[in-house]
Each structure stands twice: as C-alpha cells, then as structure tokens.
Amino acid sequence: xxxxxxxxxxxxxxxxxxxxxxxxxxxxxxxxxxxxxxxxxxxxxxxxxxxxxxxxxxxxxxxxxxxxxxxxxxxxxxxxxxxxxxxxxxxxxxxxxxxxxxxxxxxxxxxxxxxxxxxxxxxxxxxxxxxxxxxxxxxxxxxxxxxxxxxxxxxxxxxxxxxxxxxxxxxxxxxxxxxxxxxxxxxxxxxxxxxxxxxxxxxxxxxxxxxxxxxxxxxxxxxxxxxxxxxxxxxxxxxxxxxxxxxxxxxxxxxxxxxxxxxxxxxxxxxxxxxxxxxxxxxxxxxxxxxxxxxxxxxxxxxxxxxxxxxxxxxxxxxxxxxxxxxxxxxxxxxxxxxxxxxxxxxxxxxxxxxxxxxxxxxxxxxxxxxxxxxxxxxxxxxxxxxxxxxxxxxxxxxxxxxxxxxxxxxxxxxxxxxxxxxxxxxxxxxxxxxxxxxxxxxxxxxxxxxxxxxxxxxxxxxxxxxxxxxxxxxxxxxxxxxxxxxxxxxxxxxxxxxxxxxxxxxxxxxxxxxxxxxxxxxxxxxxxxxxxxxx
Length: 536
Prior knowledge:
This protein has helices spanning about 20-40, 50-65, 145-150, 150-160, 170-180, 195-210, 230-245, 260-270, 280-290, 305-310, 315-325, 340-350, 380-395, 410-425, 440-450, 490-495, 515-530, and strands spanning about 1-5, 70-75, 110-120, 185, 225, 250-255, 275, 300, 330-335, 355, 370-375, 400-405, 430-435, 460-465, 480, 505-510. The protein has three domains: about 1-135 and about 365-395 and about 475-530, no CATH class; about 145-355, Rossmann fold; about 400-475, 3-Layer(aba) Sandwich (Rossmann fold). The protein contains 17 helices and 16 strands. It starts with a strand and ends in an 8-residue tail after the last helix. By secondary structure, it is an alpha/beta fold. Strands 1-3-2-11-16-15-12-14-13 form a nine-stranded mixed sheet, with helices on both faces. Strands 6-7-5-8-9-4-10 form a seven-stranded parallel sheet, with helices on both faces.
C-alpha cells in the first residue's frame, strides 16, 4: 500500500547542518552507528546529543530492521533565471532528513515534484513515466559552421549528417584544431565532441590534398585518433566515414584487438590519411614496424582523463610524444576534466589552448531525475529492495531502450539473471549484457542490437562503466543507476547517456542506499541547478 506524502513539518536548519560537508557526513555516520547499536540491543547515550539526533536514534531503534524505499522526483529547469526559481539558492544541505520527512524548500534550479513512501507495493502515483524530450535551445553556439572556420565542402558534409549548426565546443575548437594548435576540448557528454575534432582534421586533410597533393603513405597516416575502448574507436571511425561519404573523401581505418591482425596490416600497407586505434594495438603495430609516425600531423587522445589514469598507457604516450615530427599537434578530448589531468596537460604542453563548453561538469538540462532510496537490515534485503525498485522503474517508464549501470561484473550478472527470469516468463523485455567478461564479439553484437533495435520493442542493456565512456547512445530513453557511482565524474558520464544532442529529454533513475542518499541529493541539487560539479 502506498502512503501519501508525509506531513510537511517546517524543519528549520539546525546549526550543525550549516557547517561543512564533512560534518554532514558525520551525521550520516552517527545514524549508521545508531542503527548498529539498535540491532545489538545497546542503548544510546543521550549525553552531548541534539534533540534531533536523539530522535533519529529512537527512530532507528524502532524501525531499523524494516526495509524501506523512498522516491524523490526532480526535474531540471534550464535557461535564465533557473536558480532564482528556488527559495534561497545556497549550496548547503536544505534540511532534508535522510531518514525522515523532506523539507518543503526545493533545491536551487530544481523542483521537487513528489515524495512518496512505498511499503511493498508500487502504483502509478510513483511518477516514473517517461519524460517527453523537448528540443534544447542552449545546445548551439551563436555562430555558423562557416563562421567557426569550416570550408564549404565541410559545411555540406556536415549538413548531410543532419548537423546544420555547431555546438559550443565545436565552435570553440574548430579553428584551433584546423590550424594545428595543441588544444583541449572539454564539454559534457552528448555535446558533439567527436565531430568537434574530426571535422577540422578532415578539412585539413582535404585541403592539403587539393593544394599540395599530400596523402597518407603506406603505414604512415596523417592523423591518429586514440580511444580507450574498441567500441569507441569503431564509433569514431563510423563518424569519420560518414563525413567522407558527404563529399570530402579520404581513406581511414580502425585497428583494435577485436579485429584480425592481417586485415589491419593490409589496411595500413595500402595507405590511409586517418587512423583510429586503441593504445595497445597501436603499440603492437609500432613494435612490428607496420606503422610509422613520421608523417603524423595531428594526434587526438579521446577520453584523455581515462587514458592518463591507465598505467599501461604511459609507454604508448611516451612513444607518441617522442616519435611524432616536431610541429605535430595534440588534441585532447574529455567529458570530465579532473584538476590533476588539466594540470598535467598544461605542464606538458605550455601553449595548450582550452575550448571548454559551458556545460562542462553539469547535468544535461531537460532530463528528469528520480532518486530511489533503498534500505534493509542486511545486504541481501537491500539487494531485494533494489531489484524491486528496478522492476518498478522499468515497468513505469516503459522506455524502448534502457541502460542499467552497475559498479561490478558480479552485480551486472545478478541484475541480468533477475531480469532474464522475467524475460523467460515473457513478462517484460529482452535483456542484453555489456561488460569485460563477455567476448568482444558478444559485446559488439549486444551493442549493435541495442542501438539498431532488432525485433524486440523493449531492450535493456546491463553494463559496467565501459558503456559510459564516450559511446553515443542517442537511442537510450532511460538510464538506471542500479549501483550509485563511486565518483562524480562516473556519475556525469552515466547520466549523460540520455539527453544527448539538441533533442534532450530522457529519464535517469538512481537507486541509492541510505549512506549514499545525501551525496546523491547534493549532486542533484548542484548539477540540476546548473552549477558545476567539482571533479577533483
């Protein structure tokens, strides 16, 4: 039975809630200690406790063994004046008790639509319906592609892809990439970063061939794009070939561990202008002598924050920096820019030009967010609560394409097994998996089916963060964070799988445990209020 919203008592913000986030986390830890003491039958001492903390301990003593699920629905307000729509607008916690009734004051830039207590049953009141996508007005820059630096052939090629106006990052970075400057392209997911570097690189290749007859020699490409995964590399190649079909022909190939060595060697030997690769396979071809760096003019490092954290990338990175000709340019691309990554790039490339889009480290406007708090007396009970919440969110959203993110392969398999049992009973949808435990062939097949649709109307792709690294899921309507991300940059990448491009729209459902609830709320309050999330 679903109870109505709890009584809206006026929670004035106590002094201890007006302090630092560390103090807020200590209150959560205090609650967890109280819960553990209640389970052991120990009495809590009242010495030094505020009345509010005493009330919390009493609540845990009475209700700590009862699993509970709570839903909060938030919708971002985009555009001017969003922050002013809320009462107050500061960045502190708004007095929302993680274990009690919510305060009436909404967060800056967001509107709390409904808070519902759920006890074992789910109803349509849960407000988990699919959000209707509306075209975003903040996606495009105020200049045309021609004004940004694109030639007439490139403008026509982009138009053949349905891209008539540049996004912010495309406009900011076009001339810098075209003129061979070291630059960093950073903007939120779905902002068009792949075209932001590919279009000017292709224009440069096309112009050099037309003016001076410069083309790629056997084993010596003019431009190299590095991507962390074979799926992202393949996607970049497909985008490049789409441009070529639009009237700016050039030769390109992809080399990854998913494709036969012989085929790759033959493609390199035939000569090409653009090469897309993963770091490991690039290193293998350099060692084998089937690839040379002597003609390279531009190197693109996509998802640079991910690659720089990978120790296996360091030897490849060193070989590239030492092997390319003097004057070759480096282009770095990312959807999240941790400060250590930016500092390292600035130190290595003192003249680095930055093209940061206005949406960097902010949630996509127009995407609806639902926060579901799941609690239980044990890990098994909490897992059952999360699986029940997952079932309910899928049933209510009725999205044709849903991405479910987990933190580990084991959790992926648990979710897969649960959903596949429903699939075998023909209750729901087709379930696909996407993680490192699968063979490359199965991953590729599942990804292709999810994107293309196949014969099933409703598809669910259960994935690890491998699916959040740059892959364009423009078909996705619903993202479920079955496990809440460990870091802020992971959260931004996952939720960025919906609401991509200018169309916007979509739904994100986050399933959180009690100790994660406050952090989740703070992230929603900040990013939905169109503030930047700090990525350390």
